[in-house]
Design a protein that fits this description.
mainly alpha; 63% helix; elongated
Length: 158
Amino acid sequence: MNSNDPNHFPLRDVAQNPEATARYLADVQRVLLDIGKNLETLAQEIRVHCRDTHVEGDRFYDAWLRAQPVERAFKDVLKNVEAVTKGLEKGAYKRRAHDEEVASTARKRKEKELERQRKKNPQPIQAAPNPPQQGAQSQNPGYGGPTSIYDLGNRESA
């Protein structure tokens, strides 16, 4: 497409395809991880420089106390970069899950409609077979027979 086109939006194609979105976010994440490595190195160098900067009349811990706010600021920046990279992973996962959810919505709706129809028009239930008469012998004498040890007849108890 022509970039001079007023209806051209550069990331529209990426946003419409979950695989393209995942690739794009992975590229951004790689760049952020490289930036994070550089920031870690910079933070270490700043730490060394700030802690070694002494002024005449300093006690031994004054340089360390002056360096703490600077170190804390860089630590916060690194934490934020890490949070952004984790957020990019999560965003790519959620984007793919959204497409899978959209794809399964039609199937779920059909299943719900079939369930509603089944509940509206239940199938007639067949009557259960008649229970055997009390005096009649059942086909399997081991089950369903006497309920008391006094009704055993010719069988032995355990």
